[in-house]
Structures are given as structure tokens and as C-alpha cells.
Amino acid sequence: MTTLGLEAVRRPGTVLGWATIIGIVAFVAFPIAVLAWSLVDPSTNVWAELWRTRLPGMIIDTVTLLLAVVLGAVILGTGLAWLVSAHAFRGRRIIGWLLVTPLAIPGYVGGFVWLDTLSSVVGARGVRSLWLCAAVLVLSLYPYVYLFARAAFADQGADTLAAARSLGASPIATFFKVSLPAARPSIAAGAALVAMEVLTDIGTVRLFNVSTIADGVMRVWFGTGDRGAATELAGALTGAALVLIAIERLSRRGVRRSRRAAEATMTPRVLSLPAQTFAIATSVVVLAIAVGVPLVRLVGWSVESVRNNTAVTVAGGVGHHAFNTLLMTALAAVVCIVLGIVLAIMVAHRGRVAHALGRLSTVGYAMPGPVVAVGAVVTLAAIDRRSWLPDGFLLVGSVAGLVFALVVRFFAVGYQGVEASLDRVPPAAVESARVLGAGPLRTSLSVELPAARFGILAAAALLSVDIIKELPITLLLRPFGVDTLSVWVWQATSESLWAQAAVPSLIMVAVGMVAVGALLVALERGAEVIS
């Protein structure tokens, strides 16, 4: 028996630990690997037909929308983060957290609100444009950049900024020459999340007649029923997402935190009264456009539809759709959090290979929803064909299949939330537990996980926000009779029935606001923004 084999026998936990890591990673990464493999041997006939018809237009629209939304979200999110982090004004604390609330409003909900609101001014044809679609997505997604940038600015040292000011740099020059370059990795992480959300968006782009690659996957799937063509197109989208991941990771290479632990964080500069008025007005305008107008219109439509007895126009009604939404959200979130905790604990006590495998498990979060849905269907269909399950039970078209796809898509949030919090546990606390005789597992359960509880809460809140808003995976994989609030909104807005989409949209926003509130509580208690 080899030395490695003897060591495994002496420490069976090592074999079990590696088996657990590999099993979890395979579970959440296999559907993506299936699609990546489709790029190795592409079908020339499929690609020739796609290129001859709509693919060039899809590529142009996708790239244009991606650049516009990412640039807008970076400018708006970074500017608001600097305003709140570096300046003191009345209501700063409340405004600082209110600026996160647009996360609770799905892009497709804000899309149909503004589509109806502006159509009376410029006409329906003028409203349905790529640029207004980009503006709606910026308002919905800028909080990702805002959260990352705000955390980065708050972590910058006061001495570094004071040195720049002492050399004669103005506040604006200090921002562009010192603060912004130091925060670049965090801003890049937020921008990467925005880019992934744009790549995966279906509802918003469909409302504004923007033909993206993700929308093309849906149209090929539903319009032609050609699963092979949909898989090929989803594979191309996978390649684009992987390129974005590589760019984001390269932007962080070689970057280290410049602030020492003993150095104080920067002190917000007190603004003059005119400057305070401008700061408050700017924040209020953003909140009014991103949150205020959608909420007012949704409440008005909901009251009107209830008064006219037209609120419920789909089978099952409000309770049915709300229950399904909460059930799918709870099941997927619990699986993500539990598997994330197990993987984070196992990886924490091992070396670079284990950490690399942990990173591999997060690739689903970078994949658009239609891509994950196609990969999940291919995987589940292969299992069904092998008849491993009891007679009459199929994974494709089941609740288990839908939850599996949601876990593949959002597992990274649960895993990285726990991992980031475990990294912040003081090594002395872990070493003390080990000295007292506690093993790795007991140390994790009694010391590390309690210390990571707010990180777990933040991850659960972000998971809830993402899953509640999720549309393409649910549309493609939902079992018969299991419709969610997002599907209700999709069905109503597809027929321009804005008032009938208001009630489910308002419920989604309300639940999302609760989740955002939980996220803010976790961040206040020291949880890190997940990256």
C-alpha cells in the first residue's frame, strides 16, 4: 500500500472530506460542463443557420446593451457610494441604505412601469428602444456596484487620504487619484455581477424588443423546439460569461488592501448647506426614479384592478402563485446555504487544490439563466433515460429538477457568503478550540459558524432577492401547474396587461424589500459584501 493510501486509512476523514468536496462541486458544476463541452464539437449546420438569420443582430444588441448598462451602473453606483461614504449630510445614514432598495424591484417590473409611463409622451414605438432598456437595467442593478464600492471606500485609510490632501490635492483629485484606483477591484467585482445580470435578463429585453443572445435561447427553445440549437447558442453565451469572469479576475491580480489594521478609516467630510442640499436632492431623485415611481404606479394599478375585480386573471390566483414562489425560494435557498456551509468548512482546512475546486463550484452564478436551464435539462434528461429513479418519476419537469437548476445558478451566493465570513474569524479563536481538544468539525460548528452567522444571513437574503426575481429558469423548467409570481408577471406583460401584472409585482417587491432589509441588518453587523 502506498504512503498516500496508508495516510488515508489512518485519517478516514480526509478521504470523506475530499469525496464531499468533489461531490458538491460535481453536483453544481456538471450542467455547465455539459454546455462547455458542446463548444468542443459545434454543429456547423446549426451555426450556419443562426449566423444567416439573427445571430449577428443578437451579438450587436448584447454587446451594446452590456457596455451601456455596465458603464451606467459603474458611474451611478460608484458616485453614490462616494457621496455617502466620504461626505456627511443630514439623513446620510438612512439615504445610504435606501439606495440599496432598487435591488428588490426586478428589471422587468420597472421596465413595464416605465414603458407605460413614457409611452404617453413619446409613443410606444419610441419607448421600445435599447437605450431605455439600458436605463431601466441601470436603475435596477446599480446597487451591486454601490454595495461593493461603498465597502471599499469605507475600508480606505484616513492617513492615506490625508497625505494626498496635504500635498495640495483637491477632494475631486483625491477621489480620482487615490480612492478610485484603490477601490477598482471592488468596483470591478460589482460591475461583473451587473454584466452577468444583463447577460441573463429575459423579461426586460423582451419588453423593449431588444434581441439579445439570452432572449435568442428562449426563442429557439419555445419557437422551434430545437434543443440542439438552443444548446449551441447557450454554449456561446457560456463562453461570453467565462470571458467576463477572466477579465474580472485579472483586474484584481496583484491588488492588496493598502490600509493596515491599526490605521483608522476615513472620516466623512462635513458638507456646506448648499452641498448638503445637492447631495440629498441627488439621492432623492435617484430613489424617486428607481423606486418611487414604480411603487406608486404598482399600488395605483393594484387598487384599480382589485376595485374592478380583475386582479386575478390566471389559474390559481394570488395565494397559489405566492406560495409557489416562497416554496421554490425557500427550497433553493436552504439547499444552497447547507451545501455552501459544508463545502466552505471542508475547503477551509485544506490547501490550494480544495480552494480551486470551491471556486469552480461558483461558475453557475456567472451563467445566464437560459444557459443553466439548458444545461440542467440535458443533465436531468440523461439521468431519466438511465431509469435510475423509481418508475413514473422523472426529474425533467419536476419540482426537484427546478430546484436543482436554481441551486446550480445561485449556489455561489451561499458558498461565498459563508467562505468570506469564515475568513474573518480570528485565527486565535480557532487555535484555542483546537488546543482544548476540539477537532476540525467541532471547531467549525462551535466557533467558526456562530461567528459567521451574519455572513450566512447576508447570503440568505441575497439568495432570496435573486431567486424571487428569477424568470428564465422558472419559465423553462417549471412543472405543470407550478407557476410563480414572476411567471404571472411575464404572462401579463407579454400581452401588455400592465394593471393585471401589478398585484404579483407588488407582492414580489414587498418580499424583496424584506430580504433587502435582512441584508442591510447583516451588513450593519459586520457581514461582507459577497464577491
Structure description:
The protein is mainly alpha-helical and 531 residues long. The chain has a single domain (11-254, 276-524), classed as MetI-like fold. It has helices at 3-10, 12-38, 44-52, 55-86, 92-98, 107-122, 124-127, 130-154, 158-166, 171-200, 203-207, 213-224, 227-252, 273-307, 317-348, 352-360, 369-385, 399-423, 427-435, 440-451, 453-469, 472-477, 485-494, 498-524; strands at residues 87-88, 269-270. Strands 1-2 form a two-stranded parallel sheet. It starts with a helix and ends in a 7-residue tail after the last helix. It is a multi-pass membrane protein. It holds the Pfam family BPD_transp_1. The chain crosses the membrane at residues 15-39, 59-83, 95-115, 127-147, 187-208, 228-250, 271-296, 326-348, 360-383, 395-415, 497-523.
In short:
The protein has helices spanning 3-10, 12-38, 44-52, 55-86, 92-98, 107-122, 124-127, 130-154, 158-166, 171-200, 203-207, 213-224, 227-252, 273-307, 317-348, 352-360, 369-385, 399-423, 427-435, 440-451, 453-469, 472-477, 485-494, 498-524; strands at 87-88, 269-270. It has 531 residues and is mostly helical. The longest helix is centred in the middle third of the chain and has 35 residues, at 273-307.
- Please state the average pLDDT score: 78
The rough form would be described as globular
**Second rung of CATH, namely the architecture:** Orthogonal Bundle
How are the strands ordered across the major sheet?
Answer: 1-2
Total domain count: 1
CATH fold descriptor: MetI-like fold
> Helical stretch count?
24
Beta strands, count: 2
CATH H-level superfamily title: MetI-like
The H-and-E topology, N to C, reads as HHHHEHHHHHHHHHEHHHHHHHHHHH
Q: What is the helix fraction of residues, given as a range?
A: over 70%
Strand content is under 5%
Query: Uncertain regions: pLDDT < 50 for 5+ in a row?
Result: 1-12, 256-262
